[in-house]
Amino acid sequence: MNELLRRQFDWNLLHTFTVIVEERSITGAANRLLLRQPSVSNALKRLEDQIGARLIDRERGRFEVTEQGLALYHECREICGAIGRLSDVMSDSGNQLTGHLHLWLASHVVFPPLDDALFEFNRSHPEVTYEINVATSGHVIDQVLSQQASFGICLVREQHPRLEYRRLYREHFGFFCGPTHHLFGRKDLKLADLKSEAFVSFSTDQLSDALAPVAVLRAQEGMKGKVVAVSPHLEEVRRLINAGLGIGPLPIHVVQNATERGQLWRLPPYDAPPAIDIYLVTNPRMSQSRAERFFIDNLTARLENAPDGYFVYP
Predict the structure, then answer these.
(1) What's the rounded Cα separation, in Å, for the pair 289 and 99?
(2) What sections of the chain are H helices per DSSP?
(3) What is the reported pTM?
(4) Is there a contact between 22 and 146 (Cβ–Cβ < 8 Å)?
(5) Judging by DSSP bridges, how do beta strands 151-155 and 311-312 pair with one another?
(6) Strand, helix or coil at 35?
(7) Model pLDDT, residue 301
(8) End-to-end CA gap in the chain
(9) Do 302 and 113 touch, CB atoms closer than 8 A?
(10) Angle at the Cα of 32 (from 26 to 36), degrees rounded to 5?
(11) What is the model's pLDDT at position 59?
């Protein structure tokens, strides 16, 4: 984009385009933006003319974002994220630390140093506010990429080249069943006894996804029971296991109390269970507020107490 075009460019068109992609329709975008449908259609056409590329294919009732449109959408998300953070950056001055921390976490993050950091940071800086969202690890990465999140904590299958990663802890997954399951309470089990059992799991329990170590173990041991239910959230996977729909994987340290209370029963393997690493994910292109910088420093400083630079559970 040359200098003349940059000065003449209508930046509101980018916001309109972002909403169109997210709503996947002109009508939905018009309703969300409180505009008339022809106005939204015209805005899309103007943007395509200024960019010099077709962004959305809407021929014959189709709605498909083109390759150029997807590339622009990802850039728009970063731009909108940066604009949304302006108030925090501009108010980032004075002796009293203020600001807003927007955390995005995977659903099964149980990490005591994070809880300790939140407690101490809030006690030291009571003017700072917080917002925590829980999502799939893939969505957490998207939020950090688009600068919608101060940082993310999640599983990572492949590291994105535009992000920075710091391993926080390693957790181990075990297989569990609920009280109504016929294997509950049995202590004489081997992995072979699980081969034909109905299975519930996470959506990421795939060889090409974040829970690949769990998927690899199932494949190696020939666990070919029917997968009866999946969910991206730990709470729902645990609900399905508790309800007796099948056996399934859960982080051992996360469900330790439930196991001790007799709500879950640990199944093989008891030795060398699948290990999954959890990372702190940040965006080096994002201008962090003082509150964000100080909190991240507070959290990562706790890793100095870990023998290998990260914690291991259990």
Answers:
(1) 7
(2) 3-8, 12-23, 26-33, 37-51, 67-84, 86-90, 112-124, 137-145, 212-220, 234-242, 256-260, 290-301
(3) 0.75
(4) no
(5) unpaired
(6) coil
(7) 95
(8) 53
(9) yes
(10) 55
(11) 78
Helix, strand or coil, per DSSP, at residue 192 = helix
Per DSSP, the residues of 231-288 read: ESSHHHHHHHHHTTS-BEEEETTTTHHHHHTTS-EEES--SS--EEEEEEEE-TTS--
Task: Tell me the backbone φ, ψ of residue 156, rounded to 5 degrees.
Answer: -135, 120
Q: Is the peptide bond before 314 cis (omega within 30 degrees of 0)?
A: yes
In the prediction, which pLDDT does 294 show?
Answer: 95
Task: Match 């590339």 to its residue by tokens.
Answer: 71
Question: Which tokens go with 207?
Answer: 């060889």
Cβ atoms of 229 and 240 closer than 8 Å: yes
Task: List phi, psi (to 5°) of 155.
Answer: -75, 155
pLDDT of residue 89: 60
pLDDT at 91: 57
Across the chain, which has 314 residues, the per-10-residue mean pLDDT values are 63 87 89 89 89 84 86 82 64 72 93 96 95 93 91 94 96 97 95 95 88 92 92 94 97 96 96 95 91 95 91 94
Q: Write down the residue that tokens 């999140």 correspond to.
A: 149
